[in-house]
């Protein structure tokens, strides 16, 4: 999403996004004191950040999802980056409309109704280009996008939009959550913090006995996420340490899967080996609990990344740590 720049004054940048040509506007203000040179970034730094982001966006991995079956009905599959974008848009709506029960399916439905499924309108409404419902829906959707926008200012007075879903996306959900916790912790929920704590095997008493499933949310204290965030902020990440954590967790699973595979291979001689291996994987995971399955999948996806890509991902984290305190925050949306 591109927001047209309107003016810059005293470190406050006001921007707007038109609803219709010649129609209403959403007026947006991003505030930050850019008279403080420490709040600015060099153009070279921003260009290096963009080049690294481009490299990470091109990463592909074989084990994107480990499906063990058990799902029925019509399922629509969307890409990971779109899924991440929609989830953060829903988080933004919850912040903008705290009394509303915003959900991912509800948001997708509203978008589809606005852009694809048009309501019957009168001739007069067509002449006016839009119905009030269309305008309201557009503002609803666009305000969520704007809420997820931040601002970067260079030493040369050039401003750049920092769109959180795009800038925090990574093919690995571990790095996605890690990046989001770094630049916009208010959009994280306790479950995402629990995922990070479990993945990193943090030595925190409050979370050790909490299992990794959504039902655990009721067991978490209000300051649960903050404590994990503070611990993560102190960590120095390295390829060797992260790889060791993931490998040590997956090795016992891989050994069980391998044994099951060899056994089934003997009993089902002549069957396709890929099918047997998939069956062995499914059998082992079904006999594991939800937390074990979730972590195994997360670690396997991580281990499918090349060493070079993991090191680049850690470098990206360090860049985001430097960017985070210099982001111009949204101060106002006038609808």
Commentary on this structure:
The protein has 335 residues and is α+β, with helices and mostly antiparallel strands. Among the domains are: 1-62 and 79-171 and 327-335, no CATH class; 239-303, no CATH class. It has 14 helices and 6 strands. A 4-stranded antiparallel beta sheet has the order 1-2-3-6, with helices on one face. Strands 4-5 form a two-stranded antiparallel sheet. Helix 1 (43-57) packs antiparallel against helix 14 (307-323) and helix 7 crosses helix 8 (190-200).
Strand order of the largest sheet: 1-2-3-6
What characteristic shape results from the CA principal axes?
globular
Radius of gyration, Cα only, in angstroms? 23 Å
The low-confidence parts are: 1-24, 68-74, 120-131
Amount of helix: 40-55%
Mean pLDDT equals 77
Order of helices and strands: EEEHHHHHEEHHHHHHHHHE
Number of helices: 14
Distance between the first and last residues' Cα: 18 Å
Q: Structural class, please?
A: alpha+beta
Strand content: 5-15%
The total beta strand count reads 6
- What does the main sheet amount to? 4 strands, antiparallel
List the helices and strands and how they pair.
Blueprint: E1 4-9, E2 12-18, E3 25-31, H1 43-57, H2 80-96, H3 104-115, H4 123-127, H5 132-147, E4 149-153, E5 159-163, H6 164-168, H7 173-183, H8 190-200, H9 205-208, H10 224-233, H11 239-267, H12 273-286, H13 290-303, H14 307-323, E6 329-334
Antiparallel strand pairs: 1-2, 2-3, 3-6, 4-5
Task: Describe, in short, the structure shown.
With 335 residues, the chain is of the alpha+beta class. It is built from 14 helices and 6 strands.
């Amino acid at each position: 999403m591109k927001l047209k720049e309107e003016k810059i004054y005293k470190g406050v940048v006001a921007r707007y996004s038109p609803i219709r040509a010649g129609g209403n506007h959403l007026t947006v203000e991003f505030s930050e004191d850019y008279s403080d040179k420490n709040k600015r970034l060099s153009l070279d730094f921003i260009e290096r950040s963009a080049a690294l982001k481009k490299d990470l966006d091109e990463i592909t991995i074989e084990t994107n999802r480990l499906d063990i079956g058990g799902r029925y009905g019509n399922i629509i599959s969307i890409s990971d980056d779109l899924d991440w974008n929609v989830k953060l848009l829903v988080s933004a709506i919850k912040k903008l409309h705290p009394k509303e029960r915003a959900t991912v399916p509800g948001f997708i439905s509203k978008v589809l109704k606005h852009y694809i499924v048009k309501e019957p309108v009168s001739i007069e409404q067509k002449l006016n280009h839009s119905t009030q419902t269309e305008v309201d829906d557009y503002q609803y959707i666009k305000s969520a996008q704007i809420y997820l926008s931040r601002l970067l200012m260079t030493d040369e007075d050039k401003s750049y939009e920092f769109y959180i879903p795009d800038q925090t996306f990574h093919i690995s959900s571990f790095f996605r959550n890690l990046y989001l916790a770094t630049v916009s912790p208010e959009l994280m929920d306790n479950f995402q913090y629990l995922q990070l704590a479990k993945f990193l095997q943090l030595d925190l008493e409050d979370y050790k006995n909490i299992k990794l499933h959504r039902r655990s949310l009721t067991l978490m204290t209000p300051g649960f996420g903050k404590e994990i965030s503070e611990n993560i902020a102190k960590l120095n990440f390295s390829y060797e340490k992260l790889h060791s954590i993931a490998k040590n967790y997956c090795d016992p699973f891989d050994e069980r899967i391998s044994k099951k595979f060899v056994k089934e291979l003997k009993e089902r001689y002549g069957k396709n080996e890929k099918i047997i291996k998939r069956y062995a994987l499914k059998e082992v995971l079904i006999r594991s609990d939800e937390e074990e399955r979730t972590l195994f999948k997360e670690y396997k996806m991580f281990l499918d990344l090349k060493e070079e890509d993991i090191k680049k991902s850690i470098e990206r984290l360090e860049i985001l740590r430097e960017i985070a305190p210099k982001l111009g925050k949204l101060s106002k949306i006038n609808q």
